């Protein structure tokens, strides 16, 4: 059975003490994670040690970085390597978020390099894909997402692909309050799984966790996560509110 994941993406929000308080508040509220369910907190780089400390020993809870660089080490001022993340005990990294693609010009090819280095260091990439509004309006979202998958993931072996979590995030639904309907989410998730099946076979494709992201909140998580090919969510805004994120964790199937 593939993993079900509630992943929080704090983006560039909260001070250190606010972040610490949020993690405390979340822990104080009743939530359960089954054997196959994970909660992941993608926090800003400087908060990684705090989050590791806060959540140390918690079953099925992991801390993620929101980015990493594609090179091992060297003269890349301001960048953070996967070796650094590994040395902190970090095991997940969000890659290719649409904000990084848009504001920092991250291409599918560049993301392929980042994925490779993560896998070299046994760090799981949470690979984000998804189309902008213009592509959705032109009804060409399938081809758009298929290209993202092809250019960033299809050089991987099946064993390597199994280390990757995919997050489908239609850009028009991120931070806009506009959620894809559960049917739209299911349709794209099924399409992604079909593509993976064509390339890697059904056994591998069925093991890949595919998260939905785009204005997930307590009120819609149950319905979205209830779709057969949706294995949880990558959550921005609602992950900054303890009650909301706890409810989202509890909505995992
Ligand atoms: C995200 O940060 O990946 C995201 C989906 O944000 P939001 O939940 O706020 O739409």
From TrEMBL:
Alphabetical keyword list: Cytoplasm, Gluconeogenesis, Glycolysis, Isomerase
Record GO terms (molecular function): triose-phosphate isomerase activity
Top-level enzyme category: isomerase
Keyword rRNA-binding: no
Assembly, per entry: Homodimer.
Organism expressing this protein natively: Hydrobacter penzbergensis
Active site: 97, 169
Annotated metabolic or biological route of this protein: Carbohydrate degradation; glycolysis; D-glyceraldehyde 3-phosphate from glycerone phosphate: step 1/1; Carbohydrate biosynthesis; gluconeogenesis
Catalysed reactions, as listed in the record: D-glyceraldehyde 3-phosphate = dihydroxyacetone phosphate
Record GO cellular component, one term: cytosol
Positions in coiled-coil regions: none
EC number: 5.3.1.1
Annotated HAMAP family: TIM_B
Record's keyword annotation contains Isomerase: yes
GO terms under biological process: gluconeogenesis; glyceraldehyde-3-phosphate biosynthetic process; glycerol catabolic process; glycolytic process
Stated name of the protein: Triosephosphate isomerase
Role: Involved in the gluconeogenesis. Catalyzes stereospecifically the conversion of dihydroxyacetone phosphate (DHAP) to D-glyceraldehyde-3-phosphate (G3P).
PANTHER family per the UniProt record, alphabetical: TRIOSEPHOSPHATE ISOMERASE
